[in-house]
Each structure stands twice: as C-alpha cells, then as structure tokens.
Amino acid sequence: MKTHVVKLKANRKTLSAYLKEDMNLSSRKAKKLLKDGIAVNNKKAYGDMKLKDGDILYIEEDKSRDNILPEKMEISVLYEDEHILAVNKPPYMVIHPTKTHMEGTLANGIRFYFDERGIEEPVRFFNRIDMNTSGIVLIAKSSQAHSLLDRYSAKTMEKKYIAIVSGHIEKKEGRISLPISNEADQEGRRNISDQGSLAITDYKVLEEFESSSLISVSIITGKTHQIRVHFSSIGNPLLGDRLYGGENDMIDRQALHASELNFLHPIYKKPISIKADLPNDMLLLLKMLKGEA
Predict the structure, then answer these.
(1) Over the stretch 253-289, which tens digit does the pLDDT of each residue have?
(2) pLDDT category of residue 291 using cuts at 50, 70 and 90
(3) Quick one: 159-258+284-289 is in which CATH superfamily?
(4) How far apart, in whole angstroms, are the C-alpha atoms of residue 89 and residue 25?
(5) Would residue 135 be called left, alpha or beta, if left means φ above 0 and alpha means ψ between -120 and 50 degrees?
(6) Which of 31, 164, 244, 270 is found 20 to 30 A from 60 (Cα to Cα)?
(7) Phi and psi torsions of 108, nearest 5°
C-alpha cells in the first residue's frame, strides 16, 4: 500500500479525472484502481467523488511477479532512478527467456537485480535488441512507468547506434526508406518487401577504412533487424553479420552497438541522455581495420 497526497491549486476535481490527468494513469489502470485498489482518506473511493487539496489516496500496489528465474550476473548500469533502469547489454546475450534460452538471459539478471533491491515488479523491457547486438536496454520499474514511456517518451525518443559496414557507402550521409517484411523467411531473414511496413534509417559515415566504414545510425522506426536489412539492401552489410551477407573473420557477430538513447523522462518530464561505450570486440575490430592490431 502506498499513499499519495492530492495537490490541487484551485477547483476540486473528480477522482477519476485526477488519476488520469494529474497522476498520468491510463484509463484502464485508473478503472482497475477504482474497482478494487484505492481509498480516499481511508474511505471507499468512487470515480465521481470530488477531491480537495490535501486529501490522501491509499493505493493498493500491483505486486504481480513474473516467473523468470533469478540469476546472479554482472549488470552494467548506465542510469537508474526509482522509475526506470538502463543497462549496457553485452553481445551474445538474449534479452528474454525462450524455449532454447531459459537461463543466462538479461531478464534473468534483471530479476536477480530487482530481487536484491526488494523490487517485486515484473521485468518490463521497453526496448529490445538482437542477441548479438550490444548496448543500451531500457527497463521500466512499474506498469505506470512503462505505460508513460510508451505514451509520452516514445514520441520523441532518439535511438542511436554505431555500426561498421562492409565497403564504402556512396552517399556519406543520408536516409534509407524501404519497407521490410513483417515475417522472417525460413532462415530467419527479413527482406525488403512492398508487402511489409515502411522502415526509416538515418546514417552518417564517420570514418572509412580500406574496405569498410564506421557509421552512426539513427532509427526513426523500429522494425526487427531494421539496420541489418537496410544496409545489406544497399550492398553494405554489417561486418560479421552472417545472416545478411557480412561474414568476416575479424568479428564473430554483427558489428552493431546501441550507443545512445535520448528521451523525455516519463515521470519527471526532463530530458534524459544515456550513452554506452563500444564493447571490446568492436574496439579491437576498429584497431585491426586501422592496422593498429
């Protein structure tokens, strides 16, 4: 049970309106609380009852948990407050348990991290990246934070990546706007398809090597394998990306790192900028491409 002190400067407001307008709850969440999870000044609450400044709301917290097995592992925390957590996922790690990866996933580690700190909420990922992609993953610590990330923060969220691609891109800065299939083929590949959904990727070449390029990437949309499909489609697959034609002996996975996330905090409404340094395998790859290793 948590308490909330009502703050109203002028006119009274109905409880239902206060929950949605002042506490930023979704209509579904507000309706659920009114049904069985809220009281005003220790008395049963109704949606049309008028609140006044100083009233105390007693809110029954949803303590539903997931069934994820807690697993102790090193978690690289990039940002944390009482509402959200951002971590730097290493390559070769699955985000969420699957039939073939029940343990060793990031979710297992976050479940342990939450349990150690008394956080009974389910593990709620706001963004996901491929198993072999490294970088920033954002986790909401409550259903409210997750809902507000989706309703408010996502509208202006900037997702930036660093990638190393095969060859030299003709235009050194540009946008790729091509539709990507909604389903994968038998090999797990997505393809450019008029029957798919439009995907938009912005890029800028940062440095060129003999037969490859270091680029920064921003995704405007969020299709599965978007960056990998788009650069493969223009003849510049990511180095190490066997699935999309970029197989390379110098790195065992696609050279792709989720390096930066900029957004408006879902609760505090202040700008948040999170950055993650390149992992060791991509740093080593860059040294080899420059002839320094």
Answers:
(1) 999 999 999 999 999 999 999 999 999 999 999 999 9
(2) very high
(3) Pseudouridine synthase (3.30.2350.10)
(4) 30
(5) left
(6) 270
(7) -60, -45
Domain boundaries of the chain, sorted by first residue: 2-59, 159-258+284-289
pLDDT band of 3, cuts 50, 70, 90:
confident
* Cα–Cα dist 256/227, whole Å: 9
pLDDT tens profile 29-67: 788 778 777 888 888 888 888 888 888 888 876 656 788
Q: Give the residue numbers annotated as catalytic, written as ranges.
A: 130
Whole-angstrom CA distances from 102 to 65, 86, 111, 133, 141 are: 17, 22, 13, 19, 22
What is the CATH superfamily name and number for domain 2-59? RNA-binding S4 domain (3.10.290.10)
Mean pLDDT of 85-89: 98
